[in-house]
Amino acid sequence: xxxxxxxxxxxxxxxxxxxxxxxxxxxxxxxxxxxxxxxxxxxxxxxxxxxxxxxxxxxxxxxxxxxxxxxxxxxxxxxxxxxxxxxxxxxxxxxxxxxxxxxxxxxxxxxxxxxxxxxxxxxxxxxxxxxxxxxxxxxxxxxxxxxxxxxxxxxxxxxxxxxxxxxxxxxxxxxxxxxxxxxxxxxxxxxxxxxxxxxxxxxxxxxxxxxxxxxxxxxxxxxxxxxxxxxxxxxxxxxxxxxxxxxxxxxxxxxxxxxxxxxxxxxxxxxxxxxxxxxxxxxxxxxxxxxxxxxxxxxxxxxxxxxxxxxxxxxxxxxxxxxxxxxxxxxxxxxxxxxxxxxxxxxxxxxxxxxxxxxxxxxxxxxxxxxxxxxxxxxxxxxxxxxxxxxxxxxxx
Length: 397
What we know:
- There is one protein chain.
- The chain is α/β, with parallel strands linked by helices.
- It folds into 2 domains: 5-146, Nucleotidyltransferase, domain 5, CATH 3.30.420; 195-383, ATPase, nucleotide binding domain (Nucleotidyltransferase, domain 5), CATH 3.30.420.
- 38% of the residues lie in helices and 20% in strands.
- The chain contains 15 helices and 14 strands.
- The protein has an 8-stranded mixed beta sheet, sandwiched between helices. Strands 11-10-9-12-14-13 form a 6-stranded mixed beta sheet, with helices on both faces.
- Helix 1 crosses helix 3 (123-136) and helix 10 packs across helix 11.
- The longest helix is centred in the C-terminal third of the chain and has 21 residues, at 294-314.
């Protein structure tokens, strides 16, 4: 019987991801996804021994509750429910209220809901998932791990905007940053890879997925990051615009767009999808580009150019740079994206090792630049492991 199993839950507005993590081995012994909540096709699926299984949710409503009930039943069927010692929850936004992992009670859940103005698509859903899990696992300690917490070490010059202090003090308008658990994990793994203590190492972590962000990490701490007040700013992403002149929003409103229409356009219809006119999926963009599609080529060029610009600018935040880290779905698997970014950074001495870059995909890690040149590397992220470890650490504190 194991005493190191943590159930990790990431509850979204219409989905719920889960994973069972062994905090000793770091392995995920079970993982799955509930999706399409609120729709007739709502279901929960999971993989056991590489075989996918699926359970359809009924139309009686409360699909979050139904999904967790099915997860509980699954754990009981597998005979491992009694081995779980804690539940860890991913929370996108902790504002300035939550600067580290906390044990969950109703007061904490209410505070997370109170921060919903900062993350309207995420925090309300997290609160739903927490309450459902607390009901399903009433005897287990449950913990909230915040994407924003890792970035609380940023200096004021990095997180305070060039706006009146009134807006910051009254409304909390500032840079918060996201993907904190990912940047934390890969920076620690990178330090091991180059055989240096993390508190003596500096990296630029490049998390490239459907959501994307860059983080400057000095001696193990975040000192700047590209996402800001919300996850919309910074890099161009799958469907998000990234950095944009704020006057464009005023312009669109004057043209008759509603605030809701502007929000949806910039969050859901922009980025790779908007520029290419085809897809938000990087693989589709590259395939179309190779077939001569102009929109896909432009999307590829804008994306790689903007990532390269951010990397170059974040060198200013560091005294030294031990390596650039590529991670997340695109960062871990797209050789053409990484190759183009390194080409854009050749002024800094980066030279791609094509064979190493081709090998560092599909779960493989490695240094992808030539010997005796500045280091760039690929490290698969593991946010669930960080959430599980943070939860276990607080459980035994």
